[in-house]
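Appendix C: a fully annotated inverse folding record. The material below is reproduced so that readers can follow the format used throughout the book. The structure is listed first as tokens, followed by the designed sequence.
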């Protein structure tokens, strides 16, 4: 195996890893966006009862 083939193999592996990370990042961000939308559509009493919406509360009763 010559140097060019090794370089191409490494670049192929790096490309696959970067694409995989990009897809995972997109899925996580999309799920967060869907949660943002869901929380914004809830009635106020359900909004404050839903733990998934806690990050959007302005204050907490600690």
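Designed amino acids, in order:
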């Amino acid at each position: 195996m010559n140097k060019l083939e090794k370089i191409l193999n490494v670049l192929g592996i790096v490309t696959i890893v970067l694409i995989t990370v990009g897809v995972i990042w997109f899925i996580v961000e999309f799920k967060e966006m869907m949660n943002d939308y869901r929380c914004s559509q809830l009635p106020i009493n359900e909004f404050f009862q839903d733990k998934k919406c806690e990050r959007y509360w302005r204050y907490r009763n600690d």
